[in-house]
Amino acid sequence: MPEQHDGHLEIAQYHNDMKVLMDEADCLIDLPAVERALDDMAERLTQSLSDSMPVFYCVMNGGLITTGHLLTRLGFPLEVDYLHATRYRGGLRGGELFWRVSPEVPMAGRHVVIVDDILDEGATLASILEYCHQAGAASVSSAVLVEKMHDRKAVPDLKADYCGLEVEDRYVFGFGMDYKGYWRNAPGIFAPRGL
Ligand SMILES: O=P(O)(O)OC[C@H]1O[C@H](OP(=O)(O)OP(=O)(O)O)[C@H](O)[C@@H]1O
Ligand code: HPA
Q1: Would you state the torsion angle of the CA atoms of residues 127, 128, 130, 132, taken in this order, to the nearest 10 degrees?
Q2: Which ligand is nearest to the CA of 87?
Q3: Which pTM was predicted?
Q4: Is there a contact between 94 and 87 (Cβ–Cβ < 8 Å)?
Q5: Is there a contact between 160 and 147 (Cβ–Cβ < 8 Å)?
Q6: Which ligand is closest in space to the CA of residue 90?
Q7: Ligand 2 center to residue 76 CA distance, Å?
Q8: Were both Cys, which of 24, 38, 117, 136 would link to 62 (CB 3.0–4.6 Å)?
Q9: Which ligand 1 atom is nearest residue 117's CA?
Q10: What is the ipTM of this complex?
Q11: Range 33-43 average pLDDT
Q12: Which residues neighbour 50 within 8 Å (Cβ) at sequence distance 6 or greater?
């Protein structure tokens, strides 16, 4: 079965490429610094939201790890749901926003917090925030682990209400963020060498 054989070879080659990518990557933010940023975000979220019975919506897939780490730092009652909107779809450049899964917990009258890994050009967050307002949320806040520093924002001056860290203008991966679908599990924030 040559096709299957070729497939195995491709995967083996890709495995090797991905290992080399990680070995050569620049670590922009190490794990202790990420942990400190999460502590700080959690403290600010607690100050603002601890009495409001908020709903946290994880933006899949990238928001998964930040959401998990953030939620375990919050000692007040809250609900959790997710939505899946993507505009990179495994690539390194963003395109049209594609809604894969809409949230299930109704937003009307609720204090909503959107959690994602990165605010890059901001088109994803801007669309999601608009969705939340249209859905009748009582308030809408956004929390992102990192914001990328550049002047290509989709909406001028768009900022997250809670931001953990700033990163330079390079393609980054780790702590939820992928490089071509891989390395969301990398423990810190990295940039491929030369990118
Ligand atoms: O600020 P922007 O330029 O809009 O980019 C930020 C978005 O891009 C990534 O998602 P992606 O579309 O890659 O999907 P993923 O979460 O499945 O990786 C990331 O998780 C953010 O949601
Ligand atoms: O730099 C990035 N890395 C991973 N995912 C992303 N989504 C937007 N920007 C990025």
Answers
A1: 170
A2: 1
A3: 0.94
A4: yes
A5: yes
A6: 1
A7: 31
A8: 117
A9: 20
A10: 0.98
A11: 98
A12: 75, 76
Cβ(117)–Cβ(176) below 8 Å? yes
CATH code for the part of the protein at 25-187: 3.40.50.2020
Q: How far is the CA of 173 from the centre of ligand 2 (A)?
A: 7
Among 173, 180, 182, 185, say which to mutate for ligand 2: greatest number of ligand atoms within 8 Å of CB: 173
Residue 105 has what DSSP assignment? S
Distance 177 CA to ligand 2 centre (A): 6
Contact criterion met (CB below 8 Å) for 71 and 45:
no
In this prediction, what percent of the chain has a pLDDT beyond 70? 96
For residues 150 and 144, give the distance between their C-alpha atoms in angstroms, rounded to a whole number: 16
Give distance in angstroms: CA of 84 to centre of ligand 2.
Answer: 15
